[in-house]
Amino acid sequence: MKKVVIVGGGIAGLATAYYLQTRARATNAPIEYQLIESAPTFGGKIVSARADGFVVEGGPDSFIAQKPAALELCRALGLGDQLIGTNDAARKVFVWSRGQLRPMPAGMNLIVPTRITPFLTSSLVSWGGKLRMGLELFIPPRRDDGDESLAHFVRRRLGAEALDKIAEPMIAGIYVADAEDLSLQSTFPRFLEMEKKYGSLIRGMRQQPRPPQNGKAATSMFMTLRDGLQELVEALLDQLDHDALLLNRRVVALRRDAGAYHIALNDGAAIRADAVVFATPAYVSAELLQAIAPELASALRAIGYVSTATVSLGFRRAELSHSLEGFGFVVPSSERRKITACTWSSTKFNHRAPDGYALVRGFIGGAHAEALMEQDDAALVQTVRDELRAMMGITATPVLTKVFRWHKANPQYAVGHQARVTAIERLAAQQTGLYLAGAAYHGVGIPDCIADGARVAAQLLKLEEP
Ligand SMILES: Cc1cc2nc3c(=O)[nH]c(=O)nc-3n(C[C@H](O)[C@H](O)[C@H](O)COP(=O)(O)OP(=O)(O)OC[C@H]3O[C@@H](n4cnc5c(N)ncnc54)[C@H](O)[C@@H]3O)c2cc1C
Questions:
Q1: How far is the CA of 284 from the centre of ligand 1 (A)?
Q2: Distance separating the N- and C-terminal Cα atoms of the chain
Q3: Over pLDDT 70: what percentage of the chain?
Q4: Which of 74, 266, 270, 297 has the maximal Cβ count within 10 Å?
Q5: CB of 398 sitting under 6 A from ligand 1
Q6: Rounded CA gap, 450 and 455, in Å?
Q7: For the CA atoms of 173, 179, 181, 184, what is the dihedral angle to 10 degrees?
Q8: Alpha-carbon distance 25 to 29, whole Å?
Q9: Sheet holding 93-97, edge to edge
Q10: Do 328 and 359 share a domain, yes or no?
């Protein structure tokens, strides 16, 4: 019987264990695993707090449906009837600009305008900025194939204002990254392909199949689970062999001897394994691999991380003067506010607040404002309340407050990320039985992490093939 140790019980580690267990059982493969998680709960960044009828997401609040891995896993786990989409009738995103919340023009496909009238009548971008964005149609494509930062790409194609008001808060915001560093190739390769194929993003977007009108799509663009994304973690844990799960135990060292790995835990225990999967942040994997693979460890350290916090506030609906009609707003870093975005959670999804109440969630920190994270919880709540008063006119006292801090949580896909990951995987492949999975490598989203776990499970099963 071959033994695999999976380090890290976030979604990537759990998905690795799930696919390994299901496929090994289906094929009678003589392979067993142990999953080791240092925190008191499984799920890593996925955590949903349920209190007084509110469902508060601490980390992710949804996943993109276009990448099928998460939807398929939810369905395979019997969660199909728990899946809910966004309330697309209220789909509207605002941008904080020049002292007020201004709607993102209808028909924007992330950074590219696809409808003329709403774009021309929008107050978000100046006339000069609109003209510059329109000139995108005539700007020749770049010849060179190398990676490029989001900021460089958008400035080059759509102009500085499109970067400041749209691309930076919408895209760099998703990655909690600095637009000047964020790799386009590793985050939105579609834009690079479109430029190459059609010579223009606007022209390329016009060639794409139109999404069904009036909410007739089979699924929303973003999906979640009725009682919070933690349902996915709970459903995975229901399926996994409980004897194989170790909680509250930290891997502190790794040694390789006589063809096997020896994994030391913080309680003094030692586990022998034929293979090890690191489903941990890259800097943790680097620390643990330093002794046996120093070159790999330094390649892993080159992936930077930033810290964020989410602050959710529940209100009595009647005490809010704001309509909350929309999914929320993003804040360009040039505005120098203390929050980077705010989700109107109970509008975006049903089942997030009890009747008569509303839930909103502010984001703090990220590449431009990590120092704000040093504040204590009460100060973080006050910061978000002050910002919501200034930006949305909310003066009510919240009936619920929940703060989640995410220290060194968001991997930074900086320019050259793909080349760095290729080098990391080449070095990892030199270590027999060593695997890496998770948000640091092939995508930060939940579907990416699940797909990564499935990929690694398939590789582990090959250990058993002659
Ligand atoms: C605030 C926030 C909002 C987000 N929003 C979205 C969203 O809406 N949609 C989306 O798709 N994605 C979103 N993401 C990204 C997504 O949640 C993460 O990329 C993903 O959950 C990471 O999963 P993972 O398994 O790779 O890592 P993690 O969840 O970080 O899991 C790693 C695990 O390893 C454990 N560990 C660390 N060191 C050790 C050790 N020495 N021994 C044992 N265990 C150890 C940790 O405790 C942790 O549980 C968001 C992330 C954040 C922080």
A1: 12
A2: 14
A3: 97
A4: 74
A5: no
A6: 9
A7: 90
A8: 7
A9: 100-103, 93-97, 328-330, 341-343, 357-365, 305-316, 400-411
A10: yes
Q: Confidence class of residue 128 from pLDDT cuts 50, 70 and 90?
A: very high
User: % helix / strand / coil in the chain, to the nearest 5?
Assistant: 40, 25, 35
C-alpha of residue 180 to centroid of ligand 1, in Å: 24
* Higher local confidence (pLDDT), 113 or 293: 293
Helix (H) or strand (E) holding 162: helix 160-162
DSSP string for residues in 324-347: --SSEEE--GGG--S-SEEE-HHH
Maximum alpha-carbon separation in the chain = 70
Residue 464: count other Cβ atoms within 10 Å of its Cβ.
14
Q: Which of 18, 47, 4, 8 is nearest to 246 (CA)?
A: 8
Q: In what order do the strands lie in the sheet with 251-257?
A: 251-257, 260-265, 270-273
Q: Are residues 346 and 404 in the same domain?
A: yes
How far is the C-alpha of 16 from the C-alpha of 37, rounded, in Å?
13
Indicate if 291 and 310 belong to the same structural domain: no
Q: In terms of domains, do 264 and 399 share one?
A: no
Q: Name the residue range of residue 331's domain.
A: 305-411
Q: Write down the pTM of the prediction.
A: 0.96
Burial of 402 (0-12, 13-18, 19+ CB in 10 A): buried
Q: What is the CA radius of gyration of the chain?
A: 23
Is the Cβ atom of 228 under 6 angstroms away from ligand 1? no
* Best probe residue, ligand 1, of 34, 45, 370 (max atoms within 8 Å of C-beta): 45
Residue 102 near residue 95, CB atoms below 8 Å: yes
pLDDT value, residue 216: 54
Residue length, the chain? Answer: 466
Q: Is the CB of 63 under 6 A from ligand 1?
A: yes
Q: Are residues 314 and 405 in the same domain?
A: yes
Q: What is the pLDDT of residues 166-175, one digit of tens each?
A: 999 998 878 8
CA distance 433 to 214: 50
Q: What are the backbone angles phi and psi of residue 170, rounded to the nearest 5°?
A: -80, -45
**Cβ proximity of 61 and 446 under 8 Å:** no
340 and 364 Cβ atoms separated by less than 8 Å: yes
Tell me the sheet residues that pair with 95. Answer: 102, 330
CA 88, 227, 250: angle at the middle one, nearest 5? 120
- Pair 17, 244: CB distance under 8 Å: yes
Per-residue tokens: 162: 């499109």
pLDDT, residue 108, reads 86
What's the CATH code of the domain at 24? 3.50.50.60
